[in-house]
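This part of the workshop introduces the protein records we will be handling. A record pairs a protein's sequence with a compact description of its fold. As an example, a complete record with its sequence and its C-alpha cells follows.

_____
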Amino acid sequence: MPNERERRNTELTRHWEKAWNEDPDRMVDECYAPDCVVVNMFSGHTMRGREELRVIERAIKAFDGTRHMVITNMVASGDVVAVQADSIFGTYKGKGVAFLTYNDDGLIVSDHTYGADPSGASLPDSAGFAGKATA
C-alpha cells in the first residue's frame, strides 16, 4: 500500500503528464527542480537544469504541436515514480518509460526517459538536435 509520499508523487506525476500535454514551459517550471538532470537513456544525451530541458521541450513542441502523452501505468516507490506511457505525435505512436525522482519540495530532480523522440531534438546524431554535444 502506498505511503503518503508515494501518493503525493503519483499525483505530481499526473500533473507532469497534464502540463507536458498543454505547455512545455509550464511543465519545466512547475515540475522540474532548477538543478534537475534529465537523461535520454537511448542516446545518453544529458540535460542539466531547466534551461537545457526547455530547449529540447520547445523543439519537440515545434516539431509537432499536437504531441500528447497518456500514462498507462505508474509504480511509486519512495521518491521514485516509474511511468509507462503512450506518446502520440501526429500519426507516430510510441511507447516510453520514465523514472522520475522527486525532491522534498515535490519537484523532479532526476528524469531518466526511455522512449523515441521523433523530432530528433534530443538525439545528438540527428539533424534536428536542439542541445549541446554530450561530453
Q: What stands out?
A: The first strand starts at residue 32 and ends at 40. The helical segments are 4-22, 24-31, 49-63. The radius of gyration is 14 Å. The beta strands are 32-40, 46-48, 68-77, 80-89, 92-102, 108-115.
